[in-house]
């Protein structure tokens, strides 16, 4: 399941550089997460790094993009070329 940045985002800029898949980018008003690139850091870290650094806790799971652990691993492998 992808993560999403909510309207509570304060644009502090700490999440974007932490994303190993470059899934986070500035949006029109707040940062946004590309669900096609978000693996919740599966394959890179034990926990999503953006959630770890977010000072306002505004990065929950995106219920619109349900994925299993295996689907996240497969996505990681496609993004990085690591198999």
Structure in words:
- This protein is α+β, with helices and mostly antiparallel strands.
- The protein has one domain (16-80): Alpha-Beta Plaits.
- It has helices spanning 49-53, 69-80; strands at residues 24-26, 31-33.
- The longest helix is centred in the C-terminal third of the chain and has 12 residues, at 69-80.
- It is globular and about 35 Å long.
- The two termini are 20 Å apart.
Helices and strands in order, then pairings?
Elements: E1 24-26, E2 31-33, H1 49-53, H2 69-80
Antiparallel strand pairs: 1-2
Descriptive key words:
two-stranded antiparallel sheet; single chain; 2 strands; Alpha-Beta Plaits; 83 residues; alpha+beta
Give a brief description.
This protein has two helices and two strands, in the order ββαα. With 83 residues, the protein is an alpha+beta fold.
Helix content bin: 10-25%
Order of helices and strands: EEHH
Number of domains: 1
Q: Pairing-aware structural class of the strands and helices?
A: alpha+beta
Overall 3D shape? globular
Please report the distance between the alpha carbons of the first and last residues: 20 Å
- Spans of at least 5 consecutive residues whose pLDDT stays below 50 are none
Number of strands: 2
Largest sheet: 2 strands, antiparallel
Q: Work out the radius of gyration.
A: 12 Å
Average of per-residue pLDDT values: 96
| Fraction in beta strands | 5-15%
Top-tier CATH class: Alpha Beta
Q: Which strand order spans the largest sheet, edge to edge or round the barrel?
A: 1-2
CATH topology description: Alpha-Beta Plaits
Q: What is the number of helical segments per DSSP (H or I, 4+ residues)?
A: 2
